[in-house]
Design a protein that fits this description.
Length: 255
């Protein structure tokens, strides 16, 4: 469990890992801060990417001390459409962070959903946890309910179980189940184990279908359940601890 920045097995750590853990910035951004001379320890500009554990409490970024280290927490959030999942606003558009309740502490997102997509998005106050949970190596399945416009071809759906390559990009196996087939619009349940940028929309477009609604309903062991757009609910500490210890979680509800 990563609730203490000091690793007793090692006497030193990379500054990028420490800042990422606190959700201050990404690892790459942390290294750039070092290069720009924006990080100091006891008044001395840090020139190395590795520091001793005993110096952690003396770190300052842009002249400000590091925030207090808090236990790792995870939230389930129903991302509404028309909100960006980026950390910064683009062209005046709102982000998910503009929409969160004031009592929610500083958090980072796990993965992303594009502006026209909605549904389950995990948030955490631990940047390292966010980074690890979104990696394809977790082999966590992502489930989506998707409404598409166009004629359904079940034979093509069956072929997608072997993956597909589009414009030089290979997408891993995708499982598609038809929930409701209509003359124009149909509802599909799509399951995949990676989340490349606009993956479902690109694949559907490639096989002649247009996505007009996309809702993520599950991310690994976490379900959307009864959350409504804009609602957020913290995952109980016991479940969070189980995830950080890499234990299997079997639960019908994260309530």
């Amino acid at each position: 469990m990563i609730d203490n920045l000091s690793n007793q097995k090692k006497s030193q750590q990379r500054i990028s890992k420490i800042l990422s853990r606190l959700g201050i910035c990404s690892r790459r951004q942390a290294e750039q801060l070092v290069k720009d001379g924006k990080i100091s320890i006891r008044g001395q500009i840090l020139r190395d990417f590795v520091i001793k554990n005993k110096d952690i409490e003396s770190i300052k970024v842009n002249g400000k001390a590091l925030p207090k280290i808090m236990p790792t927490r995870i939230w389930r959030y129903y991302k509404p459409i028309n909100l960006l999942t980026s950390n910064r606003s683009e062209n005046g558009r709102l982000t998910i962070f503009d929409n969160l309740p004031k009592e929610i502490p500083r958090v980072v997102k796990v993965g992303r959903l594009d502006i026209n997509s909605e549904g389950l998005l995990l948030l955490t106050n631990n940047g390292e946890v966010a980074r690890n949970l979104e990696l394809p190596s977790t082999k966590w399945e992502r489930n989506y309910r998707v409404r598409v416009y166009g004629r359904i071809n079940k034979n093509i759906f069956k072929k997608l179980i072997n993956g597909i390559t589009i414009d030089g990009f290979h997408y891993k196996p995708i499982r598609i189940h038809i929930e409701k087939e209509g003359k124009q619009n149909s509802w599909l349940r799509i399951i995949l184990t990676e989340g490349k940028n606009r993956e479902i929309r690109k694949i559907m477009n490639h096989i002649g279908l247009k996505v007009n609604k996309l809702i993520r309903t599950r991310f690994g062991p976490f379900n959307l359940d009864t959350l409504k757009p804009g609602e957020i609910k913290e995952v109980p500490k016991k479940l969070t601890d189980n995830i950080l210890k890499n234990k299997s979680i079997v639960t019908p509800d994260q309530a």
